[in-house]
Write a structure and sequence with these properties.
The chain has one domain. Helix content is 78%, strand content 0%. The protein has four helices and no strands.
Length: 60
Amino acid sequence: MDELFDNYLLKKKIDANRFREQEPDRYVIWAREYAQMHPDSFTAQKKFLLNDTRRKYLVR
């Protein structure tokens, strides 16, 4: 579990636990990419994917 990445997901209103449980491969890839770049760059690169992910795993 990556606490910085989980906090980022929370700011984006994405439930990190549900995302990690249901799509563990994509979670690990994204966490690794997030650690290697600035958060703004990550957001710009994943903008449309983040929107789709938020719809699936919206924080309740």
